[in-house]
Design a protein that fits this description.
This protein is of the alpha/beta class. The chain folds into 2 domains: about 150 residues, no CATH class; about 190 residues, 3-Layer(aba) Sandwich (Rossmann fold), CATH 3.40.50.300. Helices cover about 50% and strands about 15% of the residues. The chain has 16 helices and 10 strands. The protein has a 6-stranded mixed beta sheet, sandwiched between helices. Strands 2-1-4-5 form a 4-stranded antiparallel beta sheet. The N and C termini lie far apart (about 70 Å). The structure holds adenosine-5'-diphosphate (ADP) and magnesium ion. Magnesium ion binds next to α7.
Length: about 450
């Protein structure tokens, strides 16, 4: 427990090389004290499993808090990227450093029986110092993150927000040859499912980042519109309020080396954890049984290599990610290919969940390649090379002879051996899937 508190203090306000050097003696003292109890070996093995995630969490939390506060545009700049990336080693480094300091303890035992082990001790301590360099990188990263942070003030949003609109939005990533979005205008209203479809690279993910307020457009505007048409532009808006409105399940959502409970509750990391709501969110994401069936249930660390660690499959992670966004309960939910790793049954359940959220008044933006699901969306935008080339309902788009959507849909229907409109995915809201007749 003593080691525990020394280490937590050490990492709490940021490990500097100096602080670590200062702490080394106390770590050593603690190790020696433990030798006296003659149970160090067993103890260190048992403790390291529990300590690692805790210490790492303290370092990682500061790092990730800082890094997640960076303007996305800045994270695209190579020089900022390099510093932020380098900082990640610090969190790994904290872990191996911990292993090493536990290792030092074991060597201290060894010295009592054989002086030959002394060389090994010196080597281990040297490695400890090397590790410190990486922690310095983490500090650099946290500083760079601060310099490129999203502003914390701005115009308050209308209450409540009725819809989000983009108006002739273009986005050019730093260093890119050309724009990834070109003059895109879309409307995302509450209570509806809005689908974004298009080939890989057509700009769907970029557009979700703009709608989420993560990426400021290079040209054009993003409007947050209230009940009576009053509106606030994203550039002026209080971004904290924008983020509070939005839940985003990104393609590459973060998988935290923490417990299953923490991985869900981080969806609303600014609020105290509510386990009843965690369970409810997990139920909605169809992952409750899985987690509660684990030997350590919600306390399982969802990464291999820890005591209580488990390995989740890609599909199980997607469900946990869904539970995280459910737990967040944000009015605007953006999901970017949320079902790519799910089996067909789980996929149907996931889409049904989204439709029922829209029914409850959420705005749902669904990015998916499964056109059998988008066919029931309230409005579909078809992107091609950064432009919206078609939009409307499934029926509207299928009526366009030679249209891009019609072509994609027909190709997919043929692939599944289905005639258009005879899919088994969720029907429009209020209509049972089985009751949905051919739309064309
Ligand atoms: N971070 C980035 N830096 C530079 N170009 C990017 C970046 N992210 C995406 N792009 C480019 O923008 C275009 C749209 O990408 P994206 O929005 O991810 O499309 P989609 O989600 O439809 O596959 C692609 O040409 C892609 O290469
Ligand atoms: Mg994408």
């Amino acid at each position: 427990m003593a080691v525990n508190s020394v280490l937590t203090q050490l990492f709490a306000d940021g490990p500097t090389a100096d602080k670590l050097r200062e702490a080394l003696p106390s770590l050593a003292v603690l190790a020696v004290a433990a030798v006296a109890t003659a149970v160090l070996s067993a103890w260190s093995t048992a403790m390291s499993g529990r300590l690692e995630p805790q210490v790492e969490r303290a370092v990682s939390a500061r790092y990730y808090t800082a890094v997640t506060g960076v303007e996305v545009e800045a994270t695209e700049r190579p020089e900022v990227q390099r510093i932020l990336e380098a900082g990640k080693f610090g969190t790994d480094s904290a872990r191996s450093m911990l292993r090493l300091s536990v290792g030092v303890g074991n060597v201290v035992i060894a010295i009592r029986t054989s002086t030959a082990r002394l060389t090994s001790l010196v080597q281990q301590v040297n490695r400890l110092y090397e590790e410190l360099l990486f922690l310095t990188d983490t500090e650099d990263a946290i500083a760079a993150a601060g310099e490129n942070a999203i502003p914390l003030t701005g115009t308050p949003l209308p209450v409540p927000v009725r819809e989000v609109r983009t108006e002739a939005v273009s986005v050019t990533y730093p260093g890119a040859d050309g724009p990834s979005l070109k003059g895109v205008s879309v409307c995302v209203p509450r209570g509806k499912v809005t689908a974004l479809v298009g080939a890989n690279g057509s700009g769907k993910t970029t557009l979700t980042k703009v709608l989420a307020g993560l990426l400021l457009p290079t040209e054009g505007d993003v409007w947050w519109v209230g009940e009576s048409g009053e509106r606030v532009g994203l550039r002026e808006a209080d971004r904290a309020q924008v983020f509070a409105e939005v839940g985003l399940l990104a393609q590459d959502f973060p998988r935290w080396e923490m417990t299953a409970a923490a991985n869900v509750a981080i969806g609303a990391g600014d609020r105290p954890r509510d386990m009843d709501r965690v369970r409810k969110a997990a139920g909605e994401a169809n992952v409750l049984e899985l987690v509660e069936g684990l030997p350590h249930g919600w306390d399982s660390i969802v990464f291999k290599g820890y005591e209580r660690g488990v390995q989740l499959s890609g599909g199980q992670w997607q469900k946990l990610g869904t539970a995280r966004t459910r737990y967040r309960q944000a009015p605007f939910l953006l999901v970017d290919e949320p079902t790519s790793a799910l089996d067909p049954h789980a996929e149907i359940a996931a889409f049904q969940g989204l439709w029922s959220l829209a029914e409850k008044g959420h705005a749902v933006v669904l990015v998916t390649h499964r056109l059998a699901a988008t066919m029931h969306a309230d409005h579909i935008y078809v992107l091609d090379q950064g432009r919206v080339v078609e939009d409307g309902t499934h029926e509207d788009l299928m009526a366009r002879e030679g249209g891009l959507y019609q072509g994609m849909f027909t190709a997919q229907a043929a692939q599944y051996g289905l005639a258009p409109g005879t899919d088994r995915l969720p029907g429009p809201r209020g209509v049972q899937p089985s009751g949905h007749e051919a739309a064309s």
